[in-house]
Design goal:
Layout: H1 4-15, E1 20-21, H2 25-32, E2 37-43, H3 47-63, E3 70-75, H4 80-89, E4 99-104, E5 107-112, H5 114-117, H6 122-136
Parallel strand pairs: 1-3, 2-3
Antiparallel strand pairs: 2-4, 4-5
Helix pairs in contact: 2-4, 3-6
Length: 138
């Protein structure tokens, strides 16, 4: 488990932009059973989360004409109970951190895994997410 003093600033990049933190399995289930679209970010301490994932997600959320109804995040290696529950909802995808998932009415409709984040600029991730928002969000 990562130390809190390392994780908190990385969490705040998303929570200060309106992402709800999920730290328990119940919070995950409650978030994902809501109607509409829910963007879930599996946050991480890795460089690709800092350089590509978080900036790309924030670009997409702030600039997309259509946006998810709900924004949520959990931190891999820290929010253990929540991450385990998120990963159940992400099946059949294997565990991946960082990752981004879009749910519509509780069903997984889009997934970006770590191997699709590593080495890609934030702008590419943002454009991909905006395309998914346009497809699934109202």
């Amino acid at each position: 488990m990562y130390p809190e003093e390392i994780v908190v600033p990385m969490k705040s990049e998303l929570t200060e932009s309106g992402f709800e933190e999920m730290v328990t399995a119940t919070e995950v289930d409650n978030m994902l059973k809501q109607q509409g679209t829910t963007l879930v970010v599996v946050n991480s301490v890795c460089g690709c989360a800092a350089g590509s994932l978080r900036p790309g997600v924030l670009m997409a959320v702030h600039n997309a004409p259509k946006k998810p109804d709900h924004l949520a995040t959990s931190f891999a290696g820290f929010d253990i109970e929540a991450i385990n529950k998120v990963r159940e909802h992400l099946l059949p995808y294997p565990p991946s951190s960082p990752a981004v998932a879009l749910f519509k009415d509780g069903k997984l409709v889009s997934m970006i895994e770590r191997h699709q984040i590593e080495g890609r600029p934030a702008q590419v991730i943002a454009q991909h997410l905006i395309g998914e928002f346009n497809k699934y969000c109202n």
